[in-house]
């Protein structure tokens, strides 16, 4: 209950107060701790400028809505269904998971939870199986965010007996009827999601925010590597950091490059090599040695030899 | 005769908004909410028909309200109640129960007298609705 009391949903803002004629936006801004949320976002997510500016716009809209309500101007809950498009590893899933927290703190949704589903969770295998399955997922997500990864798999034009269409229709209806209860986020690769929207115009038109995730630049990727390493309680030696930079530049030109995901994989392999090196060396180890990833751990990568 | 059973039954019927608030409270306590319906309003009838399973994994009242509305749609003219089950050790029982739907015409109860040995008379009540077979009552 306490969590409900400390974060009252925006829809429950006082409406019964006597008619005011002005409202102090600075005061509202301070009360909503939006600044803190946006700062945290800037700190924790590297790059992603279009995403951050979109979140900033949404925050501003919600704040202005709150102000309007205080002056007795009627406001409809804005539709915040979103689609995230971008190449692999550009942070679509990470941001979606964070979106619930952001929207919750902005007072748009009541609960800070994300229900993450894929085609398997929504579409049934036989007639009459799909609707209950989709509704089950929607019920679980109510009050929070429903995140549909690889959303285009819902629609399979090549198989006309596919039940995906049924799931899409139920989804559309709930997106329309429960706009205040649920935020739906679709994610996937840009071209395929666009095809999906063009074959399901109802879906495309109900999504107000199409956010495109750009590829990371090499300096951003190095930043991400630093964040990941410190998150794992490791650190890169000076030589290792230099090697990492070179590694990123080389890796970016290679096929199957998946942005931050490739960096994560590279770091995982570097940890493996570090463990192997320490194991071979044997003897007494101190905390510093256990934490440091050396240049050799990264230089041993196949990327440098190709 | 208006049936009074469970919580809030002496108050006017709860609006959807009030039901949502009660469910929100139940969920905030960690209780599982269930929906049940019946056409046999006897107070000792503990066997109401379950509308699906108790909703153990739903976090928000809006999700429960979807089921509430679906049950109402299917059982317009029956009694429907919302229950909240507390699974905590020591309780393991229903903590909340309130009616959210009732038939348009409620028949009420008949007082039945059964004469026993001597001048002894046993009293019981019987719902007029149960004169008819189930399915044809309301």
Automatic annotation (TrEMBL), chain A:
Keywords, sorted A to Z: ATP-binding, Nucleotide-binding
Protein name per Swiss-Prot or TrEMBL: CbbX protein
Molecular function GO terms recorded: ATP binding; ATP hydrolysis activity
Pfam families reported in the protein's UniProt record: AAA, AAA_lid_6
The AAA+ ATPase domain, residue ranges: 78-217
Family: Belongs to the CbxX/CfxQ family.
Key word Nucleotide-binding present: yes
InterPro entries: AAA+_ATPase, AAA_lid_6, ATPase_AAA_core, CbxX/CfqX_mono, CbxX/CfxQ, CbxX/CfxQ_RuBisCO_ESX, P-loop_NTPase
Top-rank taxon: Bacteria
Gene3D superfamilies: 1.10.8.60, P-loop containing nucleotide triphosphate hydrolases
Biased composition (Low complexity): 1-21
UniProt-annotated stretches for the region Disordered: 1-22
Matching NCBIfam families: cbbX_cfxQ
UniProt KW Phosphoprotein keyword: no
SMART domains the record matches: AAA (SM00382)
UniProtKB/TrEMBL annotation, chain B:
GO molecular function: ribulose-bisphosphate carboxylase activity
Top-level taxon of origin: Bacteria
Keywords: Calvin cycle, Carbon dioxide fixation
UniProt keyword Cell inner membrane present: no
Gene Ontology biological-process annotations: reductive pentose-phosphate cycle
Presence of keyword Zinc: no
Ribulose bisphosphate carboxylase small subunit domain ranges (all copies): 4-103
Entry-linked InterPro entries: RuBisCO_ssu, RuBisCO_ssu_dom, RuBisCO_ssu_sf
SUPFAM superfamilies reported in the protein's UniProt record: RuBisCO, small subunit
Complexes and interactors: Heterohexadecamer of 8 large and 8 small subunits.
Database matches in HAMAP family: RuBisCO_S_bact (MF_00859)
Family stated for the protein in its record: Belongs to the RuBisCO small chain family.
Function statement: RuBisCO catalyzes two reactions: the carboxylation of D-ribulose 1,5-bisphosphate, the primary event in carbon dioxide fixation, as well as the oxidative fragmentation of the pentose substrate. Both reactions occur simultaneously and in competition at the same active site. Although the small subunit is not catalytic it is essential for maximal activity.
Miscellaneous comment as given in the Swiss-Prot or TrEMBL entry: The basic functional RuBisCO is composed of a large chain homodimer in a 'head-to-tail' conformation. In form I RuBisCO this homodimer is arranged in a barrel-like tetramer with the small subunits forming a tetrameric 'cap' on each end of the 'barrel'.
Protein name as catalogued: Ribulose bisphosphate carboxylase small subunit
Organism: Skermanella aerolata
């Amino acid at each position: 209950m306490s969590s409900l009391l400390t974060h009252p949903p925006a829809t429950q803002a006082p409406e019964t107060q006597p008619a005011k004629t002005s409202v102090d936006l600075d005061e509202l801004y301070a009360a909503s701790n939006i600044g803190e949320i946006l700062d945290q976002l800037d700190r924790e997510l590297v790059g992603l400028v279009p995403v951050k500016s979109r979140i900033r716009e949404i925050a501003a809209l919600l704040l202005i809505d709150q102000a309007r309500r205080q002056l007795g101007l009627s406001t409809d809950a804005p539709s915040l269904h979103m689609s995230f498009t971008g190449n692999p590893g550009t942070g679509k899933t990470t941001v979606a998971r964070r979106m619930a927290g952001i929207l919750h703190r902005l007072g748009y949704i009541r609960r800070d939870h994300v229900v993450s589903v894929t085609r398997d969770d929504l579409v049934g295998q036989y007639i009459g199986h799909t609707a209950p399955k989709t509704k089950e997922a929607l019920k679980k997500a109510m009050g929070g965010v429903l995140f549909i990864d690889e959303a285009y798999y819902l629609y399979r034009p090549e198989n006309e007996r596919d039940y995906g269409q049924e799931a899409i229709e139920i989804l559309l209806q709930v997106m329309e009827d429960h706009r205040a209860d649920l935020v739906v986020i679709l994610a996937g690769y840009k071209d395929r999601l666009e095809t999906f929207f063009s074959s399901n115009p109802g879906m495309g038109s109900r999504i107000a925010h199409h956010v495109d995730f750009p590829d990371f630049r090499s300096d951003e990727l190095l930043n991400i590597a630093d964040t990941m390493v410190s998150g794992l309680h490791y650190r890169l030696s000076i030589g290792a950091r230099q090697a990492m930079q070179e590694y990123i530049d080389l890796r970016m030109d290679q096929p199957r490059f998946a942005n931050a995901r490739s960096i994560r994989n590279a770091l995982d392999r570097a940890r493996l090599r570090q463990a192997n090196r320490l194991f071979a060396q044997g003897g007494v180890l101190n905390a510093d040695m256990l934490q440091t990833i050396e240049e050799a751990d990264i230089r041993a990568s196949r990327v440098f030899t190709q | 005769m208006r049936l009074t059973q469970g919580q809030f039954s002496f108050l006017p019927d709860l609006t959807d908004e009030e039901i949502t608030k009660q469910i929100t409270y139940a969920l905030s306590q960690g209780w599982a909410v269930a929906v049940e319906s019946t056409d046999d309003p006897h107070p000792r009838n503990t066997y109401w028909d379950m509308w699906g399973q108790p909703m153990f994994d739903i976090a928000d009242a809006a999700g429960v309200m979807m089921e509430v509305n679906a049950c109402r749609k299917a059982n317009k003219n029956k009694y429907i109640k919302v229950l909240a089950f507390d699974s905590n050790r020591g309780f393991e029982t229903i903590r909340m129960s309130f009616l959210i739907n009732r038939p348009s015409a409620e028949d009420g109860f008949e007082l039945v007298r059964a004469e026993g040995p001597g001048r002894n008379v046993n009293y019981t009540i019987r719902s007029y609705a149960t004169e008819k077979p189930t399915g044809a009552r309301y």
